[in-house]
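Following the same procedure, sequence and fold were stored together, as reproduced here.

>
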Amino acid sequence: LQVTVPDPRTVALLFQPVLLRCQFQVGTPGPPPIVTWKYKSFCPSPTSGDTWGGPESASGGGDTLGTCPDSARTVRIVATKQGDMVTLGDFYRGRAVTIRGGAELSLGPAAWGDSGFYICTVTSTQDLQGNNEAVAELVVLGET
């Protein structure tokens, strides 16, 4: 199993549709794998004390998935796809969010709280070898 995100960093405008691409190759044919997208917020900013470091901290090399523990972040399931059925996490119900194609996450219009890391995880009972997840970073910019 090999999971990749072709665009590891996406910058989107507020209220514009966002598509995070995730691709996977399964080594052994079988039932369709389970695709899960999970959201992790940026690390809290040490100076302002707020819960989001913002794009400045991310682009300045200050934030990667390893720089602060998950307990300091907001972590939630965005959506899970099994076969043709997509189940949304509680926070995303009522929004235009879905998993299209094999594993592409469509967020509909971007909202302020959407900036962060999105982890695409593919689980296959037929293929347990390889790398089963990849990370996409999303920065949502406001209108100027």
Remarks:
- The chain has one domain: 2-44+71-141.
- Residues 2-44+71-141 form a domain with the Immunoglobulin-like fold (CATH 2.60.40.10).
- The chain is about 5% helix and 40% strand.
